Amino acid sequence: MKPVEFFEELNKEDVDIAGGKGANLGELTQAGIPVPPGFVITSRTYDQFMKETGIFDEVMDILDSLDVNNNQELQQAARNIKNIINETGIPDHIETIIIEAYNALCHRIGREDAYVAVRSSATAEDLPEASFAGQQDTYLNVRGEDDLLKYVRKCWASLFGARAIFYREENNFDHSKVYIAVVIQEMVEAEKAGVMFTVHPSTGEEKILIEAAWGLGEAVVSGTVTPDTIWVDKDTGEIIDYQVSEKNILFQRNPEAGNTVKIPVPEDLKNKKVLSSLEIAELTQLGKRIQEHYDFPQDTEWAIEEGKVYMLQSRPVTTLGKISGEDEAEQEEVERIIITKGLGASPGMASGQVKIIKDTDELDKIQKGNILVTVMTTPDMVPAMKRANGIITDEGGVTCHAAIVSRELGIPCVVGTGDATKILKENTVVTLDGNKGLIYQGKIIEESDHKDEDKDKPTIVQQSILTVTEVKVNVSMPEAAKKASETGADGVGLLRTEHMMLTTGVHPKKFIIEGNEDELIKVLVENILKVADAFYPKPVWYRTLDAPTDEFKSLKGGEGEPYEHNPMLGWRGIRRELDEPEILKAEFKAIKKLHEQGYTNIGIMLPLVQHPDELRQAKKIAREVGLKPQKNIEFGVMVETPAAAMIIEDFIAEGLDFVSFGTNDLTQYTLAIDRNNENVADLYTEKHPAVLKLIERVIKECNKAGVKTSICGQAGSMPSIVEKLVELGITSVSANTDAVATVREVVARVEKKLLLKAARKIMQE
Ligand code: PEP
Ligand code: MG
User: Fold this and answer.
1) How many angstroms does the Cα of residue 659 sit away from the middle of ligand 2?
2) Does any ligand 1 atom lie closer than 6 A to the CB of residue 713?
3) Comparing C-alpha atoms, which of 26, 663, 27 is closest to residue 397?
4) What Å distances lie between residue 741 and 203, 309, 480, 545, CA to CA?
5) From atom 9 of ligand 1, which residue's Cα is the shortest distance away?
6) Contacts of 686 by beta carbon, 8 Å cutoff, 6+ apart
7) Architecture of domain 338-455
8) Which atom of ligand 1 is nearest to the CA of 715?
9) How far apart are CA 105 and CA 588, in angstroms?
């Protein structure tokens, strides 16, 4: 392995020496794709530097004696290691090789002391990205030998950020076996740049999506400007649609200081098309070649300098929607015979063999691709739900367990059929339509599978629209957090606890009674960490436990759960937690631990409050475990009872940072309709004027008092309600993963309308 390798010498197999980024740039170069030239300082060079200078042992000694659970110690150790690396001279023979390679690159570019980008490139593909935990750095516009060597060391040091050390330690990854490479690449001074998907990023259709803006690509990637959006037919190359947007800002290199600056776009370019037809054709050709080369749809970044197109980056498209059904090609289209109906609870079509689950010990019969049919899903069914192509239940409304989980998993689902477990026959093939709530006989190949409006929105659109009202996402399953974060959401407006607690199979009280509080805390820390990490540093509002007694019964230790006639009105939410403060305490202790590890992005939200006394008592318990509500941690309540909405002023007087509308419950309690009872489901609507009136008064009172407002019930995913909430001045909206893109667009549209209205009013005055 050589100390440096030029891109021409690398390919995708070289991840261990060149890191993921370096290997990928080598692969593209070798495939003849125009990539700005550059080289990689290999992982071996990092290793040599650490060992020859003797700092390897010094660093390992610091790590050996470190208690990563002591946050101060952890932060200090990370700082010390970084200082050691940044301040240790690179051995002459290594320095010479790096400088020679830089000079060779400058010669090739035709400029002395050329500007380059210096990027760290993680080498261990088999380790989760989190083991490098966002600590990998990129330095743009680096110029000259001294600066180059300085930033190379910074990239090496980025391997020892506090979060990366913590993560490796917690997951037993050996610090001495993690290496890092550094990519050095010519900086392209782009006149125009953007991204390109070689298929429709959410449906996989054979269309190319290009987003383009003036200046460097950062403007598009960071979402600072709304770029032009261009759709191209991949087969014919025909431009299907060119949406020109108003581009107010561009990024460019400051010629004096060499840094990147934001400047206003000249008036004549603001509303001008960024790309000519020729450039679009060239990009399309390149996109097709790259996809062909990798044999998989690609998500790329490109730039154009002096009329020449460069590809800067290419990775597999990870946002493609799930295509349901087994072997579609083999299937014949069949006549549509509806067998039964329910409520469409998670969009999409799915076909497969029916497996009826009467008891949880039958779950093993669900194989990949089956349709799971049951009276109502429970948390212990989730592993089987993940294997299923689709889910059908007898009971439930659109906010029941089956609906929430399947939306998060992206699996089509129909709930509340009333009779599916009786009418459907084991092992027969059916197709379900999760939009319309219909179950058809046999397998139907549905051309419009993904054509419903919401699914049609590409993920990239969300990243490029800026809104003042934050658009967040709801998470119930920590394992789905990464997917949720890829929507570009501004944080998690609701992290439900029930799933993570119930999947232990053990009643939380049993942990406490048997003296295993630590174990319970560990489960919580592990699960919450996944979400806090995926979204860091964006806020994550952890909602304390809210499980009705019937959901706890089947757990080990749950035998003593009381029987309740109506669990929805029973012992759940904050009222139960105040009766059993040990569980609440364990939750708070878990959050305290995470706070100490640097995850200060976590806030606390209390469910089902009906009196400010409950807020006061919960804050007291939080203080007892060392948290400081409203000082070092955001603290808020859900508005789910008409009582809370009617006396929100008293909650504000008690003190809180935010409220969030739990419209699933607020609707059931305002209208006296059990949200899980399919017999009254047709009367259940969040749009009822009484529900909207309660929401309106809460937003008004909170805005007066400077308390943040949000929504995390299902209504937060409904465009018509979101529209109204933005008009009322809500601070954020938290939607389901599959609705974030649409909600972001709705919010942007309403905000624009409000701005125009305000501007007109000012002009008239
Ligand atoms: C709600 O009630 O709207 C809510 C978000 O909480 P859950 O659905 O978990 O009761
Ligand atoms: Mg609720």
Assistant:
1) 13
2) yes
3) 663
4) 14, 30, 17, 28
5) 496
6) 663, 666, 667, 713, 714, 715, 718, 721
7) 3-Layer(bba) Sandwich (3.50)
8) 3
9) 55
Which one of 3.10.28.10, 3.40.190.10, 3.20.20.60, 3.40.50.720 gives the CATH number of domain 461-764?
3.20.20.60
Atom of ligand 1 nearest to the CA of 660: 5
Q: Do 192-316 and 338-455 come out as alike in CATH topology? A: no
Do the bridges between strand 192-197 and strand 207-214 make them parallel or antiparallel, or are there none, so unpaired?
A: antiparallel
200, 401, 450, 595: the catalytic one is: 401
Find the 450 Cα to ligand 1 centroid distance in Å.
27
| pLDDT of 475 above 90 | yes
User: What φ, ψ does residue 716 adopt, rounded to 5°?
Assistant: -70, -10
Please name the residue whose Cα sits nearest to atom 6 of ligand 1: 662
Q: For residue range 671-696, list pLDDT tens digits in order.
A: 999 988 888 888 999 999 999 999 99
- Crossing angle (nearest 10°) for helices 43-52 and 92-109: 150
Q: Is the CB of 416 under 6 A from ligand 1?
A: no
Atom of ligand 1 nearest to the CA of 607: 6
Residue to mutate, 640, 676, 694, ligand 1, most ligand atoms under 8 Å from C-beta: 640
Tokens 């990092």 -> residue: 46
- 693 or 330: which leads in pLDDT: 693
Q: Which atom of ligand 1 is nearest to the CA of 714?
A: 3
Structure tokens at 307: 């009329």
Rounded CA-CA distance 323/352 in Å is: 13
Domain ranges within the chain, ordered by starting residue:
4-186, 192-316, 338-455, 461-764
Nearest to 411 by CA among 441, 391, 437, 426: 391
Return phi, psi of residue 726, to 5°: -65, -40
Distance 662 CA to ligand 2 centre (A): 5
Q: Is 507 a catalytic residue?
A: no
Ligand nearest to the CA of 397: 1
- Altogether, the residues listed in the chain come to a count of 765
pLDDT band at 395 (very low <50, low <70, confident <90, very high): confident
**Mutation choice for ligand 1 from 398, 494, 676, CB with most ligand atoms inside 8 A:** 494
Q: If residue 162 lies in a helix (H) or strand (E), which one and from where to where?
A: helix 162-170
Strands laid side by side in the 192-197 sheet: 239-243, 228-233, 207-214, 192-197, 298-305, 308-316
Tokens of 154: 């910074």
pLDDT (mean) for 318-329: 40
What is d(CA 276, CA 281) in angstroms, rounded to the nearest whole number?
Answer: 9
Q: What is the pLDDT of residues 15-68, one digit of tens each?
A: 889 988 899 899 999 999 999 999 999 999 999 999 999 999 999 999 999 988
Regarding the beta carbon of 712 and ligand 1, being less than 6 Å apart is answered yes
To test the pocket of ligand 1, the residue of 399, 408, 637, 638 to mutate (highest count of ligand atoms within 8 Å of its CB) is 399
> What is residue 759's predicted lDDT score, i.e. its pLDDT?
86
Question: E-assigned strands of 65-188?
Answer: 116-122, 138-142, 180-186
Which homologous superfamily is 4-186 in? ATP-grasp fold, A domain (3.30.1490.20)
Nearest CA to ligand 1 atom 8: 664
Q: Does ligand 1 lie within 6 Å of residue 663's CB atom? A: yes
Distance from Cα 593 to the centre of ligand 1, integer Å? 26
CATH domain 192-316 topology? D-amino Acid Aminotransferase; Chain A, domain 1 (3.30.470)
Residue pair 298/315 in contact by the 8 Å Cβ criterion: yes
* Four-residue CA torsion sign, 566, 568, 570, 571: positive
Our answer on whether the CB atom of 401 is closer than 6 Å to any ligand 1 atom is no
- Dist. CA 321 → ligand 2 center (Å): 28
